[in-house]
From TrEMBL:
GO annotations of cellular component type: membrane
Transmembrane annotation, as ranges: 29-47, 67-91, 103-123, 129-149, 161-180, 192-214, 260-281, 293-314, 351-371, 383-408, 414-437
Presence of keyword Lyase: no
Gene3D superfamilies listed in its UniProt record: MFS general substrate transporter like domains
Pfam families tied to this protein: MFS_1 (PF07690)
Record's protein name: MFS transporter
InterPro entries, per database record: MFS, MFS_dom, MFS_trans_sf
Residue stretches making up the Major facilitator superfamily (MFS) profile domain: 33-441
């Protein structure tokens, strides 16, 4: 073997070792931070959507109609929308550790307190306060990822993080069904009271842990070596240099950027699908002919499983092709078809599960893809504020969705008209992103 060949082999080995070291570093970060945040997000969704199971008995005890229930669900999004941007900007100032601690302690406390509701106004107040407490968690985590991962890694991490929602659905449905089935009148409390208390308490515990466990930035991580810190910081600096020179860095610039509002319209498709999946799945399955609450809980997990697998496949395809817009519109189209077809098949439970699974594909895959777009052209305050604006404006659909579906169900005894409206809006949101976000800006 020649000296030159030997030299080439040594150089290749060194490059491979460097790449392996980088991968090992990011694996370490992911295990340390994202595992804990994954658990937090699971608890978040358990506390947010357990009301869909509680309402099977809650409505009778509090005297709530379907319209009143839909209103209570929607009130969650008032505080959520109003405080998304301030909470995200506050995270940029005080760090994720204090922000996540504050959010989780508040939402856990409010969720457990819902166990003691005795009147409709208390349900409305609790849902409003719960939304205000949770405001900023999701966009804050999206911002937090930009402190640790360069652009090419964030879609994969985001998709894995979103698996927490699927895990909450997979775990939460059977768990909620089990609690409702087995905790009726235990110690004199109704089963839905136990549901709120038992599923809210872990969030309080996780909030305490967050204060001592999370690290705001790589430079502060005592669990990383100096070399590992340097690998992460250099990756982030290279990422910043790769952004366009005219990338908005101020909040006002982000507010004047039309892409922010196009992406908000796209993001709105996700909570619209979530309205069906998170708040009405139990009712739809019951209406399709399943009466046992434990069986309802088990069946409700199936759409989340399908959505989780589809999200991983679609997100991987999007990353390999470095393409976002067509993957996004394909995802939203699946959700629109599922919602529209559900109007014809609400009395056939296997068909209803298939339709809910299509809605779930849109719910998960669209969310994983769309959040890979804003950080590619926003920096600094514009990133924090812009992400918050997109998230909060997108939740407007989540506010009106439950009200409309609940009102339609009360007036007609069917979800059909409301589901068709959701289908049309979800499809339109996908087309808006396809047409309104220029191709170069949709690539990391």
């Amino acid at each position: 073997m020649t000296d030159s060949a030997l030299g080439y082999g040594q150089q290749s080995e060194r490059v491979m070792a460097d790449a392996a070291e980088v991968e090992m570093t990011y694996r370490k970060v992911t295990f340390r931070l994202m595992t804990f945040l994954f658990v937090c997000w699971v608890l978040n969704y358990l506390d947010r959507v357990n009301v869909s199971f509680a309402q099977l008995q809650l409505k009778q005890d509090l005297g709530l109609s379907d319209t009143a229930y839909g209103l209570g669900v929607s009130l969650f999004f008032i505080g959520y929308i109003l405080l998304e941007v301030p909470s995200t900007l506050l995270l940029k100032r005080i760090g994720a550790r204090k922000t996540v601690t504050r959010i989780m302690l508040l939402w856990g406390g409010i969720s457990t307190a819902m166990a003691f509701m005795t009147a409709p106004w208390q349900f409305y107040l609790a849902r409003t306060l719960l939304g205000a407490a949770e405001a900023g968690f999701w966009p804050g985590i999206i911002l937090y990822l930009t402190y640790w991962y360069p652009a090419e890694r964030r879609p994969r991490i985001t998709s894995r993080f979103l698996l927490a929602i699927a895990a909450a659905g997979i775990i939460g449905g059977p768990l909620s069904g089990f609690i409702l089935q087995n905790f009726a009148n235990v110690w004199g409390y109704r089963n839905w009271q136990w549901l709120f208390f038992l599923e809210g308490l872990p969030a309080i515990i996780a909030g305490v842990v967050a204060y001592f466990y999370l690290t705001d930035r790589p430079e502060d991580a005592k669990w990383l070596t100096d070399r590992e810190k340097r690998i992460i910081v250099e990756g982030l600096e290279a990422d910043r240099r790769a952004k366009p020179a005219d990338a908005p860095s101020r909040l006002l610039a982000a507010l004047c950027d039309p892409r922010v509002y196009v992406l908000a319209a796209g993001w709105a498709t996700v909570p619209l699908c979530g309205t069906i999946l998170n708040y009405w799945t139990a009712t739809i399955i019951k209406q399709a002919g399943i009466g046992n609450v434990l069986h309802i809980g088990l069946l409700s997990a199936l759409p989340y499983m399908v959505g989780a697998v589809a999200m991983l496949v679609i997100a991987r395809s999007s990353d390999l092709r470095l393409e976002r817009r067509w993957h996004f519109v394909a995802s939203t189209t699946a959700g629109a078809v599922g919602a529209a077809t559900l109007t014809l098949l609400t009395h056939n439970w296997p068909a209803a599960i298939v339709c809910l699974s299509l809605v779930s594909i849109s719910y998960f895959a669209a969310a994983a893809i769309i959040w890979s777009i804003p950080p590619t052209y926003l920096t600094g305050d514009a990133a924090a504020g812009g992400i918050g604006v997109i998230s909060s404006l997108g939740q407007v659909g989540a506010f009106f969705g439950p009200i409309v579906l609940g009102w339609v169900k009360t007036m007609t005894g069917s979800f059909a008209a409301g589901l068709l409206l959701v289908a049309a809006l979800v499809f339109a949101g996908g087309v808006a992103v396809l047409m309104g976000v220029p191709k170069p800006d949709s690539r990391p």
